Amino acid sequence: MIDDDLHLRAKRLLGGQHRTDDLDRFYLDLRERTHGRASFREIGDFVAHRGERNRGPVTPVARDVITSVSIWSLGFRGKKPTYPELAQAARANFRLASDKQLKDGCGLKRSAVKKVVDRALPRFEGGGPIDDEELRVLLYLANRFIWRPAFTDDEVVKDFCDVLTLNKIVSKADRPALLAARDFVSLYALICMHGTSIALEDGTSAQLLAG
Known about the structure:
- By secondary structure, the chain is mainly alpha-helical.
- Helices cover about 60% and strands about 5% of the residues.
- It is built from eleven helices and three strands.
- The protein has a three-stranded mixed sheet, covered by helices on one side.
- Helix 2 (about 20-30) packs across helix 3 (about 40-50) and helix 5 packs across helix 8 (about 130-140).
- About 30% of the residues are buried.
C-alpha cells in the first residue's frame, strides 16, 4: 500500500507537479530502504526529527564548521584565542579541508599532515615547543575558516533518483524526467535543514540557517 501511494506521488512529480508533501512521503517512507545513499537517509531523518540533530553525517560537519568560524573570528571580536582553542580549530579544519587545500596550504599530502597534527598538537595545545615544519602546518590549520557542505546538490539529487529507481518507484527510463526536478529537490533539502538545531559537544546548540 505504501509503495502504491508512492507510485502515485512519483507520477505527479514526473508530470511536473512539485509538491512538498510528496517529497515528505518519499523521504519518510523510503529512509529505511536507501541502498546506502547517505544523503537520502540524512534528509529523511531531518524530515522526521526537525527539532535537534545530534547524529548523522551533517552533524559532525556542522560542528566542525561552527568550531572553525567561531575560533577564526575571535580576533574580529577583540579576543585572543588560547592554545587549546587553536588546537581545536586545527583539528576541525583538518577534517574539513580537501586534499588540495592541505597540499596547497601545507605542502604535504593529507597522510603527512595527519602525522604532524597527531604528534604536534598535544605539545602545541599545552604551549610546548614545536619545530618549523610543525609550526607551518599548525599555523595554516589553526588560523583560518574552512567551510564545506556535508553533501553537494549533485549528491542529493543523484541519491534521490537512485533510491526511487532502486525501490522501483520509478523506472530507469523515468530518470531523465526525474532529474528535471533537480532544483525542487535541492531547495527542499535546504528547507528541511533550515532552522534545525545541531547539538554541540560542549552541551550547547547552534541553529542551521539556509543562506
